């Protein structure tokens, strides 16, 4: 039996970080739970104080295949390197020919940098670029392959 799972990212600005990751992953804002037109309606129904309504943001894969991603506000900032990171296969992954894959990776680096990401480093394999290690707007590392 498959176990459904989701990813939760602690952050300072949930809505802002969710917008970045929606762009990076091709995700969309997660629809409100069944029976509710808006998240605000769900929050009110469950007596969540209005001042807490912006404490999180939620994304889902529009195709319903990938895991949901949640962003939750926490008081502390990121301090050390992630022990877990995403490899985003924007180029198709290493099974895609380099001549096809690398231009896709380079385009994604430009697009995500324009949206607030930073390049940490570009790693090479056999003398040519292989993947790019980046950080999202709050410093969480990820790779473009």
Summarize the SSE layout with pairings:
Layout (H helix, E strand, L loop, with lengths): L5 E6 L2 H12 L2 E2 L9 H7 L10 E5 L7 E6 L12 E3 L9 H17 L3 E8 L2 E8 L5 E4 L1
Parallel strand pairs: 1-4, 5-8
Antiparallel strand pairs: 2-3, 3-4, 6-7, 7-8
Rg calc: 17 Å
Order of the strands making up the biggest sheet:
1-4-3-2
Biggest β-sheet description:
4 strands, mixed
Q: Count all strands and give the number.
A: 8
Class by SSE composition: alpha/beta
Query: Runs with pLDDT <50, length 5+?
Result: none
Dominant shape? elongated
Number of domains: 2
Helix content: 10-25%
* Total of DSSP H or I helical runs spanning 4+ residues: 3
Structure, described:
By secondary structure, this protein is of the alpha/beta class. The chain folds into two domains: 6-73, no CATH class; 86-144, 2,3-Dihydroxybiphenyl 1,2-Dioxygenase, domain 1. It is built from three helices and eight strands, in the order E-H-E-H-E-E-E-H-E-E-E. It has helices at 14-25, 39-45, 98-114; strands spanning 6-11, 28-29, 56-60, 68-73, 86-88, 118-125, 128-135, 141-144. The strands form two sheets. The chain has a four-stranded mixed beta sheet with strand order 1-4-3-2, with helices on one face. It starts with 5 loop residues before the first strand and ends with a strand. The mean pLDDT is 94.
């Amino acid at each position: 039996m498959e176990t459904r799972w989701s990813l939760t990212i602690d952050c300072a600005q949930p809505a802002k970080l969710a917008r970045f990751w929606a762009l990076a992953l091709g995700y969309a804002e997660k629809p409100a739970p069944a029976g509710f037109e808006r998240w605000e309606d769900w929050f009110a129904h469950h007596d969540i104080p209005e001042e807490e309504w912006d404490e999180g943001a939620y994304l889902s894969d529009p195709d319903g295949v990938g895991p949901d991603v949640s962003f939750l506000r926490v008081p502390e900032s990121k301090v050390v390197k992630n022990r877990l990171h995403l490899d985003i296969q924007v180029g198709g992954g290493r099974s895609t020919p380099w001549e096809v894959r690398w231009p896709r990776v380079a385009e994604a680096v430009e697009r995500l940098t324009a949206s607030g990401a930073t390049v940490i480093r570009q790693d090479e394999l056999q003398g040519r670029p292989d993947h790019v290690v980046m950080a999202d707007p709050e410093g969480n590392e990820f790779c473009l392959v």
